[in-house]
Amino acid sequence: MGTEQTEQITELLNNAHVKYKVMMHKPVYTSEEAAGVRKIPLKAGVKSLIFKINLDEFKLVLVRGDKKADVGKLKIIVNSKNIRLASPEEVLRISGCEIGSVHPFGMLMGLEIIMDKSILENESVDFNIGQHTHSAEMKALDLVKILKPRIEEFTL
To answer: What is the pLDDT of residue 5?
Structure first.
């Protein structure tokens, strides 16, 4: 699962003419496991979380590996009292990926991307690319250039 997304992502990165590195590794399911196999500090990882807003809207929320999303702040940012993490079934349906393998390229899923500002404290970042066994590393500013996310402060 996710092979198609991985291919789309590498094509997207190639077309953007940015430097990146793809890593294949043992399956990882948490930020801590990912940081361990990537041999990076936890804060250099990017978690891609899909949130459900109201009844039928979804947004991709990017959080630094060592942080958690503050749902109270997100409610203000998205102007909704009804916000929750998407269920595993919703994540699979929306992204084509299992939880723990979701990539940050929301445009490939038709989702608005909201990125926490703390991610930009890293020169380079690592993230899953659609599979539990594949990650990419690139400059944080290049990722922002490609994603064109809404950048906010909303982590704990």
So the answer is: 81
Closest listed residue to residue 136, CA positions, set 101, 94, 99, 93: 101
Helix segments in the chain, DSSP class H: 3-16, 31-38, 71-78, 88-95, 140-147
Q: How far apart are CA 95 and CA 89, in angstroms?
A: 10
Please, which pLDDT band fits residue 3 given cuts at 50, 70 and 90? confident
* Tokens, residue 132: 């539990």
Q: Which domains are delineated in the chain?
A: 3-152 (3.90.960.10)
pTM: 0.95
For 90-115, the DSSP string reads HHHHHHSS-TT---S-GGGTT-EEEE
Q: What mean pLDDT do residues 87-111 have?
A: 95
Residues 46, 10, 19: CA angle, nearest 5 degrees: 70
**Residue 126 near residue 119, CB atoms below 8 Å:** no
Mapped onto helix, strand or coil, the DSSP state of residue 22 is strand
Amino acid letter, 70: D
